[in-house]
Structure formats: C-alpha cells, structure tokens
Amino acid sequence: MKIIYSIKEMSDFSKKMHLQDQTIGFVPTMGALHVGHLSLIRKARGENDKVVVGIFVNPMQFGPKEDYKRYPRNLKLDAQLCRQEGTDVIFYPDVRQMYPANYKTYVVVQDLSDCLCGKFRPGHFKGVATVVTKLINIISPDVAYFGQKDAQQAIIIKKMVEDLNLAVKIKAMPTIREKDGLAMSSRNTYLHKDQRRDAVVLYQALTQAKDLIRQGNRDSLDIIRKMRRLINKRRSANIQYISIVCPQDLKPVDKIRNKVLIALAVFIGKTRLIDNIVVSP
Ligand SMILES: Nc1ncnc2c1ncn2[C@@H]1O[C@H](COP(=O)(O)OP(=O)(O)O)[C@@H](O)[C@H]1O
Ligand SMILES: [Mg+2]
User: Fold this and answer.
1) Where are the domains of the chain?
2) Residue-wise pLDDT tens digits, 74-91
3) pLDDT for 191
4) How many whole angstroms separate alpha carbon 256 and alpha carbon 219?
5) Which residues line the pocket of ligand 1, CB cutoff 6 A?
6) Which among 207, 229, 226, 223 has a CA at the least distance from the CA of 256?
7) Nearest atom within ligand 1 for CA of residue 37
C-alpha cells in the first residue's frame, strides 16, 4: 500500500491505472477510521481493481466555531486499517496543496444544501461539494462510495455529479451501527461515558418513528412530537432538528404517503451527532 501526498503523483497514478484498463474505487474520508469507513473500503475492494482511500480533514466544510482543530487525526492507525482491508493507495494531501493562498473556486448545489444540516451549518455542503469535485478530478475514480449516515451529503453529491456530468458513479452504502444502534462516527470518540449512554437515543427515536409509521401513523408532526419527547428524557441531549422529508428533494412531508427520509441532528453535550432512516409506509 502506498501513501501519496502529492496531487500530481495521485493523478499520475490514476492515469497509469486507466491506461492499463484498471478500474478505481474511491472512498473519501476525513480519517479517524471506524468500521463504517471500513465497510465502504470493503465494498470498493470487492468491485474495483484498485482502491484509493482519501484522508483529508477539509477545513472548508467546518464552520468557524466547529471542531476543525480538534477533529481526531491518526494517520498511523488509519494506514494500518486501510492496509488490512486491501487498500492500494491512501491519498493524503495537505491543506496548502488543496487550497493555495489564492484559492477562488467553489461548487454549490442549490436548495438541497440549505435545508436539514445545511440550515445549521451554512457553507458546510459548499465545502463538501467543492472538495469532492476536486478529489474526483484528481483521482478520476470509476466509482466513489459514500455512507447513508450522511444521507443529505450522498443526495447532494449524486445531484452534483449528474448536473456537472462528472464521469463517476456514486454509491451510497448502509449505515453501520454499534451494538446498541448508535451510528458509528469519528465524533463518537468525543463522548464521555454517560453521554455515550444517552447517544443511543437518536437511533431509538428513529426506530420509534419507523414503528409508528408501520402501525399506520401518517402524521409527521405527531411523530416528530413523540420523537422529541423521547430524546428530551436524556439529560445530555439537545435537539437541533428532526425532519421528515422526501428522499429525492428533501422537502418536508406532512402526510406520509410514500417513502420518507427521517433525519435528525442532536447535541449530546457539546458533540453534534446525526442519524437518519428511510421508511416506507
Ligand atoms: N456509520 C457509518 N456507516 C457507513 N458509512 C459511514 C458511517 N460513518 C461515516 N460514514 C461515511 O464515511 C465517509 C467519510 O465520513 P467521515 O466524515 O470521515 O466520518 P464520520 O462521519 O464518521 O465522522 C462518508 O461517506 C460517511 O457517510
Ligand atoms: Mg463526517
């Protein structure tokens, strides 16, 4: 396994692979890898000749008061995990190469970026769309793999690839969870012991919503009210939003008639966690 630090070297590698008719699967991450990331790498490994894992903590997608500085970083451990999963290349560019001092260009996916998480993290999805465009241009992967845990991100990237005619297939893979249901996330390492216990309430609320819908409840407001009641029982929990939306356009749904995306963001202490499920009535 190679670790490539330079953009030029990365694109040279990709060109060489494509000349040899080798397909490339790409897994973009911010590192601090967990089993959720590994599930994406395994899928890429099974479907491609070469697997590239991107590790880049992208400053452009963090707000000024967010955790960019303290975001967990551990290249040594990440490299070990990637090697175990049969990764061919870790692409690990530094910030000055990705965003030189005179950097000017951004990618914005309108509407889809302003709701749900985007409403509370202005500029976040602009940062995500911009970095993913750059990474796709540098690596030219045949397929790029994303997690359904970040449902809005996957939807935005798919739309961007369609609108900009990018020559890559986007695949969204299921959310990997801890035994108790908590969605795996690099930010779970921020949680203290009691907070970790409270954090399971995100998944419990989503499960409750799914059960209510399965039992015939079609009233989003009522379902959200019940989810709020459950989450608010936990001392360390502070709800940022709970939304029931159309999984295509992310617009709110009042009466549930078709498949819906139920998405939420909850602060557990100072740690902001997200989760979601897709439910059919
Ligand atoms: N629990 C999970 N299950 C599946 N995919 C995940 C999970 N957590 C993160 N991912 C995916 O891994 C990719 C990199 O996410 P990243 O921001 O590095 O991790 P995290 O969101 O855990 O901090 C994204 O496509 C994200 O959706
Ligand atoms: Mg993340």
Assistant:
1) 2-173, 186-279
2) 999 999 999 999 999 999
3) 98
4) 7
5) 29-30, 36-37, 39-40, 146-147, 149-150, 173, 175-176, 183-187
6) 223
7) 12
